[in-house]
Amino acid sequence: MPLPRxxxxxxxxxxxxxxxxxxxxxxxxxxxAPGDDPTPSGVPAACTxxxxxxVRGVREDAAADPQAAAVFALADAAYAAQHARTDPxxxxxxxxxxxxxxGEPAAPAAGRVTSPTVWRTTIADVAADLDVIxxxxxxxxxxxxxxxxxxxxVADV
Length: 157
Description:
Blueprint: E1 10-11, E2 20-22, E3 29-30, H1 45-61, H2 66-82, H3 88-102, H4 123-128, H5 135-155
Antiparallel strand pairs: 1-2, 2-3
Helix pairs in contact: 1-2, 2-3, 2-5, 3-5
C-alpha cells in the first residue's frame, strides 16, 4: 500500500539531524537549503533546484546542440508531468506533451486531476545515478516511467 502524500512541509529530521521536505508532486524526500520555501505551485524549492542542477548542462548546450535540446525538452516534460496539479486540461496537455516527446500515445488524462499515488522514478533517482549512467539514458527511462505511471493511474480510475 502506498504511503499517503503530504505537503512540502518539513518532516522529522534524519538520523544525521538533517531536516527533510517531501515533494507533493513527485514524492522525493529532499534536504532543503536554509530559507527554502515552497514555490507558488507547492513544489519545494529543493525539488526545483535539484531538477535545475541536474539538467543545467543540457539546458546550457541546448541552443547549440539539437541532441542536448531534445534531452532537456524531454526532462522538462517529465518533470512537468510529475508536478501537474491543477485543472484537468492542463494535466491532459502536460501528459500529451510528454507522450509526444517520447513518440508514444498519450494516456487519457482528461478529467483527471489526481496524479498517480506513487512514481516509479523521480528527478532524485536521475540525479543519484548521474555519475554512472549517461543523462540522456536516465532522462528517457524516467520519462517513460512517468508516462507509464500516468497510464496506470488513469486505468485505475
